[in-house]
Amino acid sequence: MAFGLKREELKEWKKRVQAGEIAFITHYWLDERFPNMKTVTKVGCSDIDKLIKWGRKHGLNPKWIHKDEKYPHFDLIGSFQEDVLRAENKLDQLSRFK
User: Fold this and answer.
1) Phi, psi torsion values for 68, nearest 5 degrees
2) Which of 17, 53, 88, 89 could, after both became Cys, cross-link 44 (CB 3.0–4.6 A)?
3) Residue 15: CB atoms within 10 Å
4) Over the range 65-97, which residues count as b (16 or more CB within 10 Å of their CB) and which as e?
5) DSSP the chain
6) Using one digit for the tens of pLDDT, what is the confidence trace for 5-41?
7) Which domain of life is it from (predicted)?
């Protein structure tokens, strides 16, 4: 279950993903499989090769890509989430959801 973002933020993320950009969106998230995780960052790009290359730079396995037809993306949680957001200078997303 996702919450904590505005419709316009989601629309902008989708637009950027479909345009072939590496796009980030963080939101609150509850999943019984990960009871200690409260947020997730989705990093998407419709150009799968570009997304794979970007992910490898951060130690992400291409098998972890959610191959959604329109919005392929990595779901980042835990230490991967924080490390990647810091490395990509997305500190606004870190501080907003901490």
Assistant:
1) -60, 140
2) 17
3) 11
4) beeeeebbbbbbbeebbeebbeebebeebeeeb
5) -EES--HHHHHHHHHHHHTT--EEEEEEE--TTSTT--EEEEEE-S-HHHHHHHHHHTT--GGG-B--SS--EEEE-HHHHHHHHHHTT-HHHHHHT-
6) 888 999 999 999 999 999 999 988 888 888 888 889 9
7) Bacteria
pTM: 0.91
Cβ-contact 67, 75 below 8 angstroms? no
Six-digit token pair at 76?
């980042």
Q: Which long-range contacts (CB under 8 A, 24 or more apart) does 4-11 make?
A: 4/28, 4/97
